[in-house]
Specification:
42% of the residues lie in helices and 29% in strands. It is an alpha+beta fold and 140 residues long.
């Protein structure tokens, strides 16, 4: 039964439209689904075992480890349990807007964090086009 549940969970993660990333309490990437591979331009084997901050532009890259350390020390949540818009950094170095929701679970008594990532590039472009069209109509 456990093998079947694991297989189902893997199917959900692997076929999800949104990126799913799992990190440990030190920020090390444990899982990187195919949607993340498409979003960031890295294969899973290239990022698993590395710090998640490699997927962040400055200044977030330099701040991330201190956020995790502060959370481990104080339990103060900055993003866990909520979603917010942040920037991601692709393999090419280009950045893109994304919605990031972070949940927390435990594994062997230690926290692990699940990030759900949605690329906002197209939505933001459409919103900009609507604003520009509205401004042109007002100018008439």
């Amino acid at each position: 039964m456990a093998r079947q549940e694991e297989s189902r969970l893997r199917a959900v993660v692997d076929t999800a439209v949104d990126g799913v990333i799992l990190i440990n309490a030190e920020g090390v990437i444990l899982m990187f689904n195919p949607a993340c591979e498409r979003l960031f331009g890295y294969a899973a084997f290239e990022v698993i075992g590395r710090n998640v901050k490699m997927l962040m532009p400055s200044p977030y890259q330099g701040e991330h480890d201190s956020y995790l350390e502060n959370y481990r020390r104080t339990g103060e949540r900055k993003i866990i349990g909520i979603g917010r818009e942040v920037l991601g950094r692709k393999r090419s170095g280009a950045t893109f807007p994304m919605d990031l929701s972070v949940g927390e679970a435990t594994e062997d008594g230690k926290p692990i964090f699940v990030g759900i990532i949605r690329d906002l590039t197209e939505r933001q472009a459409a919103e900009t086009a609507v604003r520009e069209a509205a401004a042109r109509l007002q100018a008439l």
